[in-house]
Amino acid sequence: MKYPYFRGLEADRYSFYRVPKALIKVDLFEKMSGDAKLLYAVLLDRMNLSLKNGWQDENGNAYIICTIDEIMDSIRCARQKAVKLLDELEHEYQLIERRRQGLGKPNLLYVKDLYAGLSQSNYWKYENQTSGGLKSELPGVWKSNGSKTDINNTDSSETDLICSAQSGENISGEMREDERYRFYFQDKLEIPILEKNFPHDREILMEILELLVETVTSRKKFLRICGEEKPKEVIKSRLMKLDSMHIQYVMECLKSNTTQVRNIKQYLLATLYNAPTTIDSYYAAQVRHDFGWGGRSN
Which residues form a coiled coil (predicted)? Predict the structure, then answer.
């Protein structure tokens, strides 16, 4: 079979499983099998559906139901391989947890929060400086956010508390929820790269970043967006799928808008929420305009 070349926006119609960059870059996962990383990405994708459906236990922890047969079908492997990969994720890397429901019932499968776990364990912050991994920074964090104090040469003191406060940690060493999501979006949206490409739009980028963090960490069960109340988890799931292309698109929409916006925060949130579903038609319209198609007859 011969596959054609890409000639325009065809790549945008693909759907993807998202493999976290940390599984590729962090030394801790260097020996994890590629199939296990793929399975984790598949299970993450299933988590989005569970959150939308409100599948949570009595403690508020989200779970999925994914049988061995479904895993075999998802990644095209034999039963023995599927079981082995689940064991690798659970016992070697603690990225999932299986709980029995009882005889004849499928296990509940909890997919663990990779970024939160690395942050709480301070793995990214204190990683061995001789390694070839992420060194001492969280992904996507500007160097100005880090402390100038040499951590290796600093004893426990008031300086440590100041550094923890600056990096968004509490006294117990755990990172606040808002900071975890801020680091996530900085990495996922490639904010430092966008800053370099759009040096005059840094304030807009920061407003977008903070709005995303504020929205996904909201304690409200329903949020008003696009003129109607929507479940917070549905909005969160959509926003977590944004990438740098979506942010560039949103910024272009802001610049091209000529109507008066009374509530810029609501307008910006609505644009971010709709970005995954409107970006294709927006750029397709631009292509038609640039090439003078515009529905004219030959």
Answer: 72-99
The answer to whether residues 150 and 275 belong to one domain is: yes
**Domain end residue (candidates: 94, 112, 130):** 112
Whole-number Å distance between alpha carbons of 206 and 201: 9
Nearest 5°: phi and psi at 109?
-120, 120
Residues constituting the chain:
298
Q: Which residues contact 140 (CB under 8 A, 6 or more apart)?
A: 183, 185, 186, 187, 188, 189, 190, 191, 192
Q: Are residues 213 and 282 in the same domain?
A: yes
Q: Please indicate, yes or no, if residue 137 is contained in any of the structural domains.
A: no
Q: Provide the 3-class DSSP secondary structure of residue 138.
A: coil
Contact 174, 120 (CB under 8 A): yes
Both tokens of 30, joined, read 């260097």
Amino acid sitting at position 255: K
Burial string for 228-237 (b: 16+ CB within 10 Å, else e) reads eeeebbbbbb
240: left (phi over 0), alpha (psi -120 to 50) or beta: alpha
Question: Which single residue is written with the structure tokens 């599948």?
Answer: 55
Q: Are 134 and 124 in contact (CB under 8 A)?
A: yes
